[in-house]
Amino acid sequence: MQMRRILGQVVFLTVLAAVLGAGRNLVAPGGIPWVGQWGASEAAAGDSIVPPPSAQPGDPPFLTLLQAVAKHADPSVIFVDARYPADYERGHISGAVLLPFEMFDDYWAGVEERLPRDREIVTYCEGSECELSLFLARLLRNKGYKNISIFFGGSQLWQERGMPMEKGPAPPPGA
Q1: In this predicted model, what pLDDT tens digit does every residue of 1-59 receive, in sequence order?
Q2: What is the mean pLDDT of residues 127-148?
Q3: 26: exposed, middle or buried (C-beta count within 10 Å: 0-12, 13-18, 19+)?
């Protein structure tokens, strides 16, 4: 009988706390929205940046969608896709060079001459859950590249916003 009474009190307090919390949320300025896109990145707005958890001071800068679009319009800027070849084939930012971070050694010899060190490079991968673009940017910086930035919204945000994408076969390693 005692256990039943304790359980009833726990249920009562839980319901009371939920009702009080919901009431507070209703009247609070800037309360939490009842309906939303949970898990959607703030970067989806195109004008803000949410850096990845492993970002460190001194990393190459991160770009918003709007900044990436502006850079893509400049033909001297080279976009580099850090994803796997199969992902590249399904759709990549128009004109992007494939340099998969996970297969860097296999691809580097064929790609190096297409990435002059005096040109600006933007790395990207899948989206805000993918850090391959950050890891690739660090690797390129260690190889002497100075003008690197990272589009952390990646191909996912690029495609969602209707920006130009291409599909087609990925170049083989070393090509």
Answers
A1: 787 887 777 667 677 667 666 666 565 555 555 544 433 444 444 567 777 888 999 99
A2: 93
A3: exposed
H or E element: which one contains 68?
Answer: helix 65-72
Q: What is the pTM of this model?
A: 0.73
Domains identified in the chain, total number? 2
Decide which of 125 and 175 is more confident.
125
Q: Are residues 17 and 97 in the same domain?
A: no
Domain CATH number, residue 105: 3.40.250.10
- What does the alpha-carbon distance between residue 113 and residue 73 come to, in Å, rounded to a whole number? 22
Distance (Å, rounded) from C-alpha 73 to C-alpha 88? Answer: 20
Strand partners, 110: none
Single-letter code of the amino acid located at 49: I
Alpha carbons 123 and 93: distance in angstroms, whole number: 11
